[in-house]
Design a protein that fits this description.
The structure is a single chain. The protein is globular. It is built from five helices and ten strands, in the order ββααβαββαβαββββ. By secondary structure, it is of the alpha/beta class. β3, α3 and β4 form a beta-alpha-beta unit.
Length: about 190
């Protein structure tokens, strides 16, 4: 069951300001010339469902219209329900491994993992197969980091570079395979 991430960071590795603000990302998106989308539509074509944490869900829930036409699983230990959730949004209280198994049983084996803490938990569990990181040329100085502590017994997570692309509007995007993921381990 492959799990993928597609995420933007500031050049100094933050996915949001300390308060969750994304104004710097909105400014970068305004420089992108349509119909260019930096590979996002193609990425989404290969995805069956999305996984995000409560914080990311609450941020995305404010977008109008709701941006996803695929099932979305919201991982949360604290929420009891998702009031007024869009169609196809499901609260899930298990571990990342349990969610991967559940989604596969639902016919949704290819997952897009989004949000800092959720992404970190999938990496720590050795479940993330590939990550695409789009670097925005801005220094925030502080904020919510893309990466965090590793899982128990992990001293490093090895990545293999697959491809890097750049655009005239100053974005650089790199795609990596995580060597510790089940689908990427060498026999």
């Amino acid at each position: 069951m492959p799990c993928y991430a597609y995420i933007a960071t500031s050049l100094d590795g933050f996915i949001a300001r300390p308060d969750g603000g994304l104004d710097w990302l909105d400014a970068a998106q305004a420089r992108i010339t349509p119909p260019e989308d930096c590979g996002y539509a193609e990425f989404m074509q290969g995805i069956d469902a999305l996984v995000m944490g409560r914080n990311t869900y609450e941020k995305v829930r404010g977008f109008t219209p709701w941006p996803y036409d695929k099932p979305v699983y919201v991982l949360s230990r604290s929420l009891k329900e998702l009031p007024d959730a869009p169609a196809g949004v499901h609260l899930f209280k298990g571990t990342p491994a349990e969610l991967v198994a559940h989604a596969a049983a639902q016919g949704q084996p290819r997952l897009y993992v989004d949000g800092g803490l959720t992404l970190q938990s999938f990496i720590a569990a050795g479940l993330l197969d590939e990550i695409t990181i789009t670097r925005i040329p801005v220094l925030l100085g502080e904020g919510l980091p893309l990466f965090g502590p590793l899982g128990p017994g992990q001293t490093a997570v090895q990545l293999r570079h697959l491809v890097t692309r750049s655009w005239d509007f100053d974005l650089v995007q790199s795609h990596y395979a995580l060597e510790n993921a089940p689908g990427n381990k060498k026999a």
